[in-house]
Amino acid sequence: MQVEFVGEKLVLINKDETLLVASLQAGIPHFHACGGKGKCTTCRIMVLEGEENLSRPNKKETKLRDSIRMTSSMRLACQTKVLREPVVVERIIKDESEIAQYIQLDKKESKAIQLRPLGEEKYLVLFFLDIRNFTPFIETYLPFDVMYITRKLFDIFYKIINKHKGKLIETAGDELYAVFGLETSIREAADGGISAGLEIIEELDKLNKTYLSVYFFKEFEVGIGIHSGKVIIGEINLEGRLKTTVMGLAVNIASRIQNATKDLNNSLVASEEVVKHSSLKIKYQASQVNLKGVRSNYNVHLLGREYKNPE
Predict the structure, then answer these.
(1) Peptide bond into 310 cis (omega under 30)
(2) Are 132 and 145 members of one domain?
(3) Do 129 and 271 fall into the same domain?
(4) CATH number of the domain encompassing residue 245
(5) Can you name the residues that pair with 224 across neighbouring β-strands?
(6) Quick one: 112 and 150 in the same domain?
(7) DSSP 8-state code for residue 287
């Protein structure tokens, strides 16, 4: 059988295949953020002809249809099969990214042999770090000194995060963002995030005493915020290079907890959720903080130390 994707191509499809699988195998870059699990609706299509020739909506599709008020002519490609011809459809969300991001091709036969989700939902531990009082250092020292020290600091941070099975996602100026739990349990992720934070504080203290204060007459402190929650993780193609990106409310909360380290006067602050997941036996001080976008005060635990030079 054949299905016409308007403005794209005629696609061969078997009775046991979904429209999503068939379109991807035909080389159409059909967006499917949840990996074709019927959770995200990003593979939606509009049925222009042959609505009666398609399989009836299953439980997953019916649930999403009710939640976002989909019309009867709008279907999820990942859940819909073709029973007979003719069928004419059009993709609603058209993603022009390279199909190689989420389809692994058989180079010999030039056809898709494995579908890889463009994005997936995952429960992770989010880790934000900011170097405190770094701006005055930038304004005072030469560019060479600034970059030299920045590289030295970030090399320490990266090695410690990697040691505890975390992954660095982003750096911006004097800040970095990492995640834990990509390949470990949530307990290991929570332990890894907290342990990495504590070790960074200790190693920075040693560097301050033995090197920075001696040769640069300067000491640095950090503010670290840790939170856990469900996020969307995937890859973005930037000039031919795949870059991991992580998005979601939990990411925003982790960032805001890091910002709250200033008001709480503590170098390492973790949400109550992270501490509950962790198996580490460490001393902490329970507290609450008001976070932007969160209605009530948020429960956090102070795991670090008070700042020597609070802003």
Answers:
(1) no
(2) yes
(3) yes
(4) 3.30.70.1230
(5) 129, 268
(6) no
(7) E
